[in-house]
Amino acid sequence: MTLLPSIQLSLRPGIVEFGWGHPDSALLPVEDIARAAAHTLAQDGRLALAYGAEQGPGNLITPICTRLGHIDGTAPPAEQIFITGGVSQALDLLCTTLTRPGDIALVEAPTYHLALRILRDHKLHLIPIPADQDGLRIDLLEQQLAGLRSQGQTARLLYTVPTFSNPTGISMTVERRHALVELAQRVGLTVIEDDVYRELWYDATPPPSLFSLAPLGPIIRLGSFAKILAPGLRLGWLLAAPEIVQRCVKSGLLDSGGGVNHFTAQIVGTFLELNLLDKHVATLRVAYKQRRDALLSALRRYLPTDCTWRTPQGSFFVWIRLPANRDSAALLPQAEAAGVSYLPGALFHASGGGKRYLRLSFALLPAAEMEEGARRLGAFFQTLS
């Protein structure tokens, strides 16, 4: 009988795997989650095991509002929060609720590659908007919107990761955040702000969220417990104007089965109630900053000087630029034969681009393994000189 895998992560013997953007399982708070689960079942296990409220349980929505109040300075009202099965499920639900096949979706370039897959699943027409070292180019976004209007077309939404972008680690400047919010309000553009890495900062706190600059405007903010607690929870939240929340609440999926991931939501609500999350996030910041610094140090030692990168201030990733005329996707099979893997930059572009780039993750691997991976990658690149 064939044994099926129990987890998504698959590590190949003999290869240092920089491609997986997964947290190290050694950093998962197993004992504290067990404590929260036991407390939840002891308090009212029947409630936790029932069909959940469509919007999500109040014992999770309330502490999320409180936590966002500490982060943003102002706590949102409960009617603006909707509990989701992680950011991926939230994005999928928003596409189902707000778009139809053939609609135009604007996407940052580069951007989270798996979000592109979800948007493509909904048969949306993706148009990339370039980003630079200061984040999304608002001037180019405005030009694109004007061009669409001149053709009698409109964009249904814009997807962006403005804070510690995946893959680049860059955060959009405050000036551009204000400009994006003003533009979105002026033209009626729905902006989906993927904000999963906000609490994983290593040197300084990030700029304010887009949503906090326009709490009743066109911004829909997505958050998740995957990166700051545990990915197997498959739990997140959506923050939006009440009418958007109600459109999600009234979806047929929730009418059939109630709130998504209700039992897990109850446990995470208890985790927050027991004040366990702040301590865990602080631990993650220290651990991931050490791993980031270890990888950057190794890259400086081993990679050729014509490979360049920026120090990410948060998230899990280092975005490396290769010399001209290098194609990271074409080179990947040879790199893996040399014992190291990465994600090619082209994956993060909706319509061409990114060939000279690759993404490395420092979240999963211990420092010694990343050191060896950087050595192998540098040795491989040296053979191309």
How would you characterize the overall build of this protein?
The protein is 43% helix and 15% strand. It has 385 residues and is an alpha/beta fold. The strands form three sheets. It has an eight-stranded mixed sheet with strand order 2-9-8-7-6-3-4-5, sandwiched between helices. A four-stranded antiparallel sheet has the order 10-11-14-13. The protein has a two-stranded parallel sheet with strand order 1-12. Helix 2 (58-72) crosses helix 10 and helix 11 packs parallel to helix 13 (367-383). It is globular. The termini are far apart.
Uncertain ranges = none
Give Rg in angstroms.
21 Å
Q: What topology, given as strand order, has the largest sheet?
A: 2-9-8-7-6-3-4-5
Distinct helical segment count: 13
Order of helices and strands: EHHEHEHEEHEHEHEEHHHHEEHEEEH
Distance, first to last CA: 48 Å
The level of helicity is 40-55%
The chain-level mean pLDDT equals 96
The best one-word shape is globular
* Beta-strand content estimate: 15-25%
Q: Tell me about the biggest sheet?
A: 8 strands, mixed
Q: Give the number of DSSP strands.
A: 14
SSE class: alpha/beta
What's this model, at a glance?
43% of the residues lie in helices and 15% in strands. The chain contains 13 helices and 14 strands.
List the helices and strands and how they pair.
Blueprint (H helix, E strand, L loop, with lengths): L15 E2 L12 H19 L9 H15 L8 E4 L1 H13 L5 E6 L3 H9 L3 E8 L2 E2 L1 H13 L4 E6 L13 H14 L3 E4 L15 H4 L5 E6 L11 E4 L2 H8 L2 H6 L4 H12 L3 H26 L5 E2 L7 E5 L6 H10 L2 E2 L1 E2 L12 E5 L5 H17 L2
Parallel strand pairs: 1-12, 3-4, 3-6, 6-7, 7-8
Antiparallel strand pairs: 2-9, 4-5, 8-9, 10-11, 11-14, 13-14
Helix pairs in contact: 1-10, 2-10, 3-4, 11-13
